[in-house]
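Session log. Operator J.P. requested a structure for one protein chain; no other inputs attached. Running the standard single-chain path with C-alpha cell output.
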Amino acid sequence: MIEYYKTSIVTTDTTGSTPPRYVTRKIDAPEPGCWISVVAPDAGDRRWLQSEIGIEPEFVRASLDDEETSHIDYDDETGQVLVIVDCPFVEDDREAVDQSIVQYDTHPLSLIFLPEQDVLVTVSLKESETVNAFAQGKIRNLNTSLRTRMLLQMLLHISQRYLVCLRSINRQFRENEKVLRKTMRNDELIKMLGFEKSLVYFSTSLKSTEATLSKIGYGRILHLYEEDRDLLDDVSIEMSQAIEMCSIYANVLNGTMDTFGNIINNNMNITMRTLAILTLVLSIPNMVYGFYGMNTPLPHDDTWVFAFSLSVIATVGATIILMRSRFMR
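Structure written below.
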C-alpha cells in the first residue's frame, strides 16, 4: 500500500498576529516536499519504487529485508540516504506461544531521503504504530518538507513506543511471577521464556538503533539544523532510558528464572529423598519375610505373629531414626 502526504500552511488570521498552523493531508500523487508511505509492499510496489521514484536498487533490497539491522547508508552518485531503524510491534496471536499474554518483536522501518525529488519515503514491512501515528496527524509540529526533523520525530516516537512496550512486559512479568509463587506449572514458565525472548529482541534492536542515532548526530550524512539539536537530545535521552530499562528488566527476569530454577531443583531433591526413605522403610518387611521364607530354622518360625511383629517394630524404629536424623532436615 502506497500513500502520499504533504503538509500545508493554514492561516486563519490575516493580520499575522497568530503563528501559521501546519496541517498534513493525504494527496493523490507525489509532489516535492511530500512524504511517501509504503506499508507491506508487494512486487509491484518494489518495481514502482525503483522505476518511478528512482530509489537505488540496493536501497530497495535493504528496505525489503526483514532481517536487516539498523544502520545508515549514503549513495555518493545520487545523494540518496537510507536510514533503517527497528520498531517494536506486537506478535500476531497465531504466532504467539500463549494468547493470554502479549509478546513483542521488532521489524525494520526504512526511511529513504531523495534530494532530487525533495521527498521522504518510508518503507514498513508490517503495520507500524509510528507510521499510523504520523499518517493520522497525531504528531505535533509535523512538516513533511523538513525531512531530517521528521526523521528525528519518528525516532522519538519509536523510542517512546519501546518504553510503552517495556512497561507492558514488566507488568505482565509481575503478574506471572505472582502465579509462579503459588504453582510451578509449565505454562507460566513458558510465558517467562516469552518475556525473555522479547527483551532479547528489544536489547539487540535498541543497541543498533543507538549506534545509528550516534552517526546521525555527527551531521556528516544528514545536515542537522540548530533547532534539530534539541530534538536529537530528546531522542538520545529516550533511547538511553529504553536501553537502561531493557537491561534492568532482563537482569531481573534472568535472576527470577534462576531462582525459580533452583526452587524446582530443590523441590525435586526433596521429592527424591522422600521416595528413597519410603523405599528403604518399605523394604524392611520384605527382608524379614524373606528370611522367614527360607528353608532355614529361625527362632519362632512356627508362627507368623513373631515375624509380623518383628517387621512392624523394625519398620517403626527405622522410621523414627530416619525422621530424627540429619537426612530429613
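Operator note: The chain has a mean pLDDT of 82.
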